[in-house]
Design a protein that fits this description.
The protein has five helices and no strands. It has helices at 2-8, 25-37, 56-63, 68-78, 87-94.
Length: 97
Amino acid sequence: MAVAELAQRQGIDLWEEVGSGGGSLLDALALTAEAMRDPSAWQWHDDPRVPTAAPMWVLASQRWPEVEDFAALASAATAGNGRGHSGVVWTATTASP
């Protein structure tokens, strides 16, 4: 997420990049968000440990506001402080090209 945000400032769009296998950052985040909401959806492990939502979901929800799981995770990541501050968010919003 941070690399995509910083690359955008240099004119490189990693947000919408699709790899040779057809995968994208959006696809990877959507899969992760679904598994965080419903751990049984994670097909690669029978009993995955679900981490606490991180502030990177704030960036994801800003980039793709139509994805409800991203908004829910962003809200969970900022619960308590209402700001979602992290090195990723701070650097991404204040770095100059």
